[in-house]
Amino acid sequence: MPMREIPDRYLGMIIHFLMNFHNDTSEFRHPHLRKSFQKKTYIFFVFMYGALVVIGFIANIILIRNILIRREYNMSMYKYLAFNAVNDILKCIIVLPLALSTTLFQNWFYGSFLCYLFPMLQDVPFHATMLTLLLITFDRYRQIVYPLKQPIPTFLAMLGVWVVTLFAVLPYAVYTRYLDLEAYFGPQFKGTGICAINLDDNIEEYIRGLFIIMYVLPLVLVAFLHVKSSEEIKARQTAFTVSYHDINTERNNVPSLNPLQTAVPNNNQLNERPLHFETLTSEDGKDWNAEKQMQEFLVTAVILYALCLLPLNMVRLLKHVVYETYETSFQFDCTFITAVWLAFCPTITTPLIFQQKTGIHNSNISRYLRLGGRSSDVSTYEIEQTL
Fold first, then answer.
1. pTM of the prediction?
2. 158: confidence class by pLDDT, cuts 50, 70, 90
3. Helices (H), the chain
């Protein structure tokens, strides 16, 4: 196709693309580093991304292993976390390497199909994680405030998350264009193309909508549900503590009324033992201190995830407002590749917070979690022994 037949709306993009190659470049099918990374700066980013891939993969494998081996998958919260760990593993081994290569190299050599698929493939795991965290928060709210209600089936809930996420990213296909340079310049450019988004300058509203619906709104709902759940946990903890304090006081004053007096050590021995409310369960079978620890884990994981994802969202929002020039391309490229790296950091932070916040290695909490969030099989004798 002659040069004059290139559509005007594509001409500027093609000229900008060709200007980034050296004048003596004759092979365009091989990967070519962007000029921003040609002074060996790419080595640093390859190392950082490689470390993220390895550590994130191992951390999530360990997370899944701990959930399965310790039987904590009986609770729906841990089922959701296991699904999210699988999602993070896919981020590490598929999405993250692709994101690095498309940022480092200026020419697109993956073909037209992946050109249209990659924007959706890159966004789906992030939105799925955000909605999964919202699901966990909502599920915990229902179990804490309405403990008699049956939890939502985890598989169906996650299926709904992925369906919603896929529908949310489908419009990317409308805004994506693949320009086959062989059609414009001949066989020398065989297998070479330009994968571009927003050639028609009409994607801003869609990006803003995604930011509000898939980032801001879930965070607002998570904050609201977390406050409600925390208030309920605090109220139940207070009521439970007062209840056991009254029981213990009444037993001290009227020892003959203790129905287990013959089954346990005498009252003098029991009274010498301090109260340890963190190992007790309330009358509805819940350990509210364990619930509080899980609540702390959840809010910490959500905050870190939101903070890590925020720079990438800001870059996407501003990318179509701030004009990139040849002189500022280095700043743009380094900012974007750093924001992408930060967005993938929760693949490491979430498993680490899970290990540290939930007390997974604590025998009492592990036992409580294995019972599905209830301790109804804890005998009265065990409670009396603790008291």
1. 0.77
2. very high
3. 8-19, 41-69, 76-90, 96-104, 111-145, 154-169, 172-175, 181-185, 204-211, 217-253, 267-271, 288-319, 329-344, 346-357, 363-370, 380-386
